[in-house]
Design a protein that fits this description.
Length: 421
């Protein structure tokens, strides 16, 4: 090889259309991980808002509550999108993909030229959110990157038609996993055609239901039309306008001193171009790592809930019951709120949930193996939370969270031994 060729960098080729099942599974896996990352970004921004700031006027206090409500509503629908893409993966014969890279994401990972990172609520976060939710640009020549998230789903939709449409060689076999368990509205206590907290997870059984699922994601994100007031893009644009109308002092009072790109340890898988804020306060580091473990455990339960395995209907009911409510609403979210009452350790910021994953989210196919490890993980989590709760100057409510996890631990251990929860 000539030395001159070593310095030659070929231009990235355009993203090709989907023509095989492998292409489709890869594209859906990418979409699942991207939705997962975006969900964490919205959650982080919502947790950074200070809804109880005494420096806010009544009007400003109402505005910050509106910001929080809107941001959390979008986060819930990003969770819904992750669920829908998971159903699409299962329906075409793949396993759930509840994994994702740590944030800030390495450039090019999603083939989306945007700096995906955790950021507090404010101008930078809102600008990034608007770019993520922007309508797909008019059709043009194929590009080596996706100009918007909507463009990812345009490619997936076209691939579904190519592989599952009339006359396609795979038309009769594309949805070979359609009868495997999928998360649906009924798993949240809603009827098949009802929404639950603005979440509507569609089951995927065939090409029409697959296209309807993709179209729902598109409509909720960019909107059914340019002036759709309920789309994520429209909501973000309204928040941007409201934020821009506020004075600097009000903005400062609305947001806790949360850092951008927080981590609990050095990470080799994050974007090296982005400055990180490493938590150093011992209480904050310990609690943030436990928050990440609780979040990881929630994902493991969801992975076990979806797709083919030896889980019984009673197992699935147990996983659903303890993932969505005790872990999500009584551990992950309140611990995220409590972390902001602790210092990051750098003298400038508060602590935060870092949403780090220490390893891949595996799908356990054997129920006995999973139940043993579920009990172990819950025991470690309960003990760790109780230990941090006993540290000096830690919010007292953490002891209550630790007791809740101990209760879940006891119920999981009892269930593994054959007792009905």
């Amino acid at each position: 090889m000539r030395a001159g060729l070593l310095a030659t960098v070929a231009a990235a080729p355009p993203i090709p259309p989907i023509t095989t099942r492998e292409d489709l599974i890869d594209a859906l896996g990418l979409a699942a991980e991207l939705e997962h990352a975006i969900m964490c970004m919205y959650l982080y921004a919502a947790l950074s808002l200070d809804r109880a700031s005494p420096a806010l006027s009544p009007e400003a206090a109402e505005q910050v509550r509106t910001f929080a409500i809107d941001t959390l509503a979008i986060a819930r629908q990003e969770m819904e999108h992750l669920g829908i893409v998971t159903n699409l993966l299962i329906a075409v014969g793949a396993a759930p993909d509840l994994d994702r890279p740590n944030l800030p994401v390495q450039p090019g990972y999603f083939a989306v030229d945007l700096p995906l990172a955790l950021a507090p609520f404010g101008e930078a976060f809102l600008e990034l959110a608007a770019r993520l939710e922007a309508p797909a640009p008019p059709d043009g020549p194929p590009l080596p990157y996706y100009p918007s998230v909507a463009a990812i789903y345009d490619r997936i939709r076209a691939g579904l038609v190519t592989l599952g449409g009339p006359g396609a060689p795979t038309a009769a076999t594309l949805f070979l996993g359609a009868d495997d368990p999928q998360v649906q509205n009924t798993d949240f206590g809603a009827g098949p055609d009802q929404q639950f907290y603005s979440v509507e997870i569609l089951a995927v059984k065939d090409l029409p239901s697959a296209l309807a699922a993709v179209d729902l994601i598109r409509v909720q994100g960019e909107g059914a039309s340019a002036d759709d007031p309920d789309s994520h893009f429209a909501i973000v644009e309204r928040m941007r306008a409201a934020w821009a109308a506020l004075d600097a002092d009000t903005r400062a009072a609305m947001v806790k001193p949360a850092p951008s790109s927080p981590v609990t340890s050095e990470r080799g898988d994050v974007d090296p171009r982005q400055p990180l804020c490493r938590l150093t306060d011992a209480r904050a580091v310990a609690l943030a790592r436990l928050a990440n473990r609780a979040y990881e455990l929630l994902l493991l339960l969801l992975a076990r809930l979806c797709g083919a395995s030896d889980a019984t209907p009673a197992d699935r009911d147990f996983y659903r019951k303890y993932a969505f409510f005790p872990l999500m609403t009584m551990v992950v979210r309140p611990v995220g709120e409590l972390l902001t009452e602790l210092p990051a350790g750098d003298g400038a910021h508060c602590a935060v949930t870092t949403f780090e994953l220490d390893g891949p989210i595996r799908t356990y196919l054997d129920r006995a193996t999973f139940h043993v490890q579920l009990g172990e993980r819950l025991a470690h989590l309960a003990a760790g939370l109780a230990e941090v709760a006993a540290m000096p100057d830690v919010p007292p409510r953490l002891a209550y969270v630790a007791r809740n996890v101990a209760y879940v631990r006891d119920r999981a251990l009892a269930y593994a031994q054959g007792e009905v929860p």
